[in-house]
Write a sequence for this structure.
């Protein structure tokens, strides 16, 4: 859409809080297209982690959608949020852009993973998404964002536009990270051999690492062993805030494998063990 | 067209012999070649085109534009800090600051008043000194208008990429001239489109970013980036 738009009430608004030895949903508001059923306790470490699987009743995102999600993670709470399946972004009419905004706030001592399945951009899709994270010192956020393109008729038609902005603040007004892409096509030459792309951001401001740079280098070396994937980890701006991972895959499977590998390594760094399988059927 | 004095200034500042340490940076050429993703002139030309269209034009160019129009050193520093936040790769950030600080140092020693003032700020904030921001100050001190500043900024990038490819043995000297001609046309196309004033800086060069970020774990390398 062009021009200023009225503010949209969040269709999904979750607050996660620590209650004794568990994390619970302290606020659980959702409406179309989001659906929330039961939550899960799948992890041995940390044992208080709550897993939330988001579903959508629409099954896809359409041109006129303006979606808002909000997550608040209190001190001591730990949560993993995923989606049931890949998010299909369908065509938008000329002059119309699908909008999605996700706001995440993590208090000191909170731990939050937001690892949705990748987006699949259909021909003439136009998406503008923003993920804003405010992670207090002593909190942890792990966010992934990945996409690929797909033409069901295999006619080589592309998406119309993709703008994606990740903004990270660590308790202050100034953004530590503003990671933005704004494209109307994928690259040419060797880049055209890669069909899926992803980014992960680990924010852990104030955490004491033996060597975050050594962890990033080791993670890059592990990612290099995954077939059909080109990826690397690197320290975020401020260089004490956390690290980012860039992934380019010859297909979506390779990017998914890279995200899983990075997630395993980060869980091992924080809790000593990788996460249990969360296969969704 | 540019006046003679401006054209001569463009040649001076766009010359690869300008003593600002540009030869130390390959901006991904070395890493891509080491990882088997850059092998010969066709690959190089494609990556130069990608650098120009998907990074320089939408990230460096708007930052340079803002800094060229900035009123005072504090406003320039705010743009510089934004450049830092907008560059997720630590190795890319480090390279941009090192290249920018080297360029600023040369201009300050030559007496450029904006550069002298801005250089005094750098010790107070390690995030400052990114290349496109510094280029704006250096070229303002050289009395280059924005159009000329964009031209020399884009050209020094192209020159640096081709020069790195020659030194790495990816292409020969004759192929280098062919690549420069191809890149010249690409730069003309990019510059033909004016930037919207409100353009939010962005980039999408995943392979280049990854190649540069992997630099920290390479046993041997010739270039900083």
């Amino acid at each position: 859409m062009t021009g200023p738009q009225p503010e949209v009430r969040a269709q999904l608004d979750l607050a996660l809080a620590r209650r004794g030895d568990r994390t619970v949903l302290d606020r659980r508001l959702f409406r179309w297209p989001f659906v929330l059923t039961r939550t899960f306790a799948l992890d041995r470490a940390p044992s208080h982690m709550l897993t939330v699987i988001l579903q959508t009743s629409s099954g896809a995102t359409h041109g006129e959608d303006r979606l808002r999600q909000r997550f608040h993670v209190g001190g001591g709470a730990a949560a993993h949020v995923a989606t049931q399946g890949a998010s299909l972004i369908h065509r938008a009419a000329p002059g119309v852009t699908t909008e999605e905004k996700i706001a995440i706030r993590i208090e000191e001592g909170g731990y939050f993973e937001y690892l949705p399945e990748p987006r699949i951009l259909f021909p003439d899709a136009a998406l503008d998404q923003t993920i804003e994270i405010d992670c207090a010192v002593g909190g942890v956020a792990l966010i992934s964002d990945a996409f690929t393109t797909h033409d069901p008729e295999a006619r080589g038609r592309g998406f119309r536009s993709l703008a994606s902005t990740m903004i990270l603040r660590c308790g202050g007004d100034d953004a530590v990270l503003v990671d933005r892409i704004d494209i109307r096509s994928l690259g040419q030459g060797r880049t055209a051999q890669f069909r899926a792309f992803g980014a992960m951001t680990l924010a852990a401001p104030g955490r004491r690492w033996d060597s975050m740079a050594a962890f990033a280098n080791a993670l890059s070396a592990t990612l290099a062993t995954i077939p059909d994937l080109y990826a690397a980890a690197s320290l975020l701006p401020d260089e004490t805030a956390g690290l980012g991972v860039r992934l380019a895959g010859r297909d979506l499977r390779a990017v998914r494998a890279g995200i899983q590998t990075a997630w395993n390594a980060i869980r091992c760094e924080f809790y000593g063990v990788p996460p249990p399988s969360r296969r969704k059927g | 067209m540019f006046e003679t004095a401006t054209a001569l200034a463009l040649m001076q500042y766009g010359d690869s012999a300008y003593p600002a340490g540009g030869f130390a940076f390959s901006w991904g050429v070395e890493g891509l070649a080491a990882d088997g993703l850059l092998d010969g002139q066709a690959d190089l030309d494609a990556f130069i085109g990608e650098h120009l269209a998907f990074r320089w034009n939408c990230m460096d160019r708007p930052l340079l534009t803002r800094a060229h129009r900035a009123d005072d050193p504090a406003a320039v520093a705010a743009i510089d800090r934004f450049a830092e936040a907008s560059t997720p790769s630590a190795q890319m950030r480090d390279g941009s600051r090192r290249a920018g600080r080297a360029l600023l140092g040369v201009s300050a020693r030559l007496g450029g008043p904006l550069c002298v003032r801005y250089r005094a700020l750098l010790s107070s904030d390690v995030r400052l000194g990114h290349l496109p921001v510094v280029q704006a100050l250096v070229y303002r001190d050289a009395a280059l208008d924005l159009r000329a500043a964009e031209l020399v900024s884009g050209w020094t990038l192209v020159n640096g990429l081709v020069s790195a490819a020659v030194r790495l043995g990816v292409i020969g000297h004759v192929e280098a001239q062919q690549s420069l001609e191809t890149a010249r046309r690409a730069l003309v196309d990019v510059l033909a489109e004016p930037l919207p004033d409100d353009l939010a800086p962005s980039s999408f060069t995943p392979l280049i970013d990854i190649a540069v970020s992997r630099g920290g774990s390479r046993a041997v390398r010739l270039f900083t980036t």
